[in-house]
Amino acid sequence: MQLGMIGLGKMGGNMKLRLEQAGHQVVGYDRNPDASDVGSLAELVDSLETPRAVWVMVPAGEPTRSTVAELGGLLSEGDIVIDGGNSRFTDDEVNAKLLAESGIGYVDAGVSGGVWGIKEGYALMVGGAAADVERLMPIFNVLKPEGEFGFVHAGGVGAGHYAKMVHNGIEYAMMQSYAEGYELLEASEYVDNVPEVFKSWRSGTVIRSWLLDLLDRALDEDPELAKIKGYVEDSGEGRWTVEEAIRLRVAAPAITESLFARFVSRQDDSPAMKAVAALRNQFGGHAVKPE
């Protein structure tokens, strides 16, 4: 199958390579001319045979919205645009409506797999019309991991990015749980070899996972994580998950707390903790540490 790929960074570039290794023809466009096969989006569209399929793999938000809008003026009736970035699900309805005015299909694809996807495959959560998804299955079947799992047509437009949003919210909570366990083990006077404890959990335990494998890998490289500052950003999807939990009145305390923990990580000296220390001193005479 022939595919246009816009955005050839860590994910897009590896996805292009995985597809090409399986025999698909992928024409790539990137703002970096050294990585790009063509010089513009117009050249990309002109190089593809109709009906075309174009995968957008650029940063979420305005970069994706503007790319989709530009494609809407270049593509033809019967073509399909796939947004594989981390777009907010509410953007999908807007993008799909815009493209539908020109008879262009729209599929949203939540993609998980990171830098390992080229070898292990990418978990795909897809939203869109059944006919559009079916037409793209030769692409999806190559990108997904081998075996029974790793792909879902989650529903109509927006469902793919919604599923990926919840996936990332769960990921936040899982990572925070491993991190808290790590700190507890490090603080204990009983445990002498924290990295080996995590390594032992990789087989036979109910908490084994790929995230655990990756934490073990990180501890192999830096057993005390001394080279890493405890500062953690959030990509946005954790926030959106919490917002949806509030909107739908669904209790999601673990995911919510894991998001707030990331906010705390960005404070060298938390004003909230200053207030807690001051209160403890006032009501109980507990000692405070001066600056």
Automatic annotation (TrEMBL):
GO terms, molecular function: NADP binding; phosphogluconate dehydrogenase (decarboxylating) activity
Keyword Chaperone attributed: no
Record-annotated 6-phosphogluconate dehydrogenase C-terminal domain positions: 160-287
Organism superkingdom: Bacteria
Pfam families: 6PGD (PF00393), NAD_binding_2 (PF03446)
Gene Ontology biological-process entries: D-gluconate metabolic process; pentose-phosphate shunt
Keywords associated with the record: Gluconate utilization, Oxidoreductase
PANTHER family recorded: 6-PHOSPHOGLUCONATE DEHYDROGENASE
Family, as annotated: Belongs to the 6-phosphogluconate dehydrogenase family.
NCBIfam families (UniProt xref): gnd_rel (TIGR00872), PRK09599.1 (NF007161)
Protein name: Decarboxylating 6-phosphogluconate dehydrogenase
Organism, as annotated: Glycomyces buryatensis
